[in-house]
Amino acid sequence: MVNPTGSVSWSDGRQVIAVLVGSNNLSIAQLLSLAWTMTTLGSCQTQVPNTGGANLQGANLEYCNLSGYNLSGDNLQNANLQYTDLQNANVQGANLKGANLANTFANAASFQGANLQTASLAGGTAQGANFQSANLQGASLKGGTFTNADFRSANLQSSDMSYGDFSYANFTGANTQGAITTGATFTGATNPPT
Predict the structure, then answer these.
(1) What is the CB-side half-sphere exposure of residue 166 using CA atoms within 13 A?
(2) What's the pLDDT tens digit per position in 41-89?
(3) In angstroms, what is the C-alpha Rg of the chain?
(4) 122 and 185 share one domain
(5) Which of 15, 21, 126, 184 has its CA 20 to 30 A from that of 111?
(6) Dihedral (Cα; 105, 145, 171, 129), 10-degree rounding
(7) Do 91 and 27 lie in a common domain?
(8) What is the pTM for the complete model shown?
């Protein structure tokens, strides 16, 4: 509910006052947008268990803050994780086949052994992330920032790495056959794609 005093409130008592977000002159549309964002963020905490092994196939987790979450072994096939904060999250062995992780913030997250086949990580940031032994076949990493990431023994076959920054990443033992690397940066990377 938006009231004339410039606040948004929910039936469970949560309230955002416009002054707290920097302005007491927010429009009704801005307040409704803020309310939608707050509702989305609030629902993420109840929708996503922090225990691993959950079935979240096709879930809409856009804009969720899952920083530090245990998503190991979760089924996130075809899930929408655009703009989601996965910083320091444990996503080891998760099924993210066909998932949309575009513009996701996943610094220091562990995707070790995860299935990211045909997933989109385009425009995302995963500095220092662990993709060791992950399946990224046919995935889009286009325009993403993967500096210092660990891709050892990962399957990057036919992935789109174009215009991404892979500086100081480790590709030892990775399968990069058929990967598109147009405009990508591999400064200081170990065994980068040729």
Answers:
(1) 26
(2) 445 766 788 889 999 999 999 999 999 999 999 999 999 999 999 999 9
(3) 19
(4) yes
(5) 184
(6) -20
(7) no
(8) 0.79
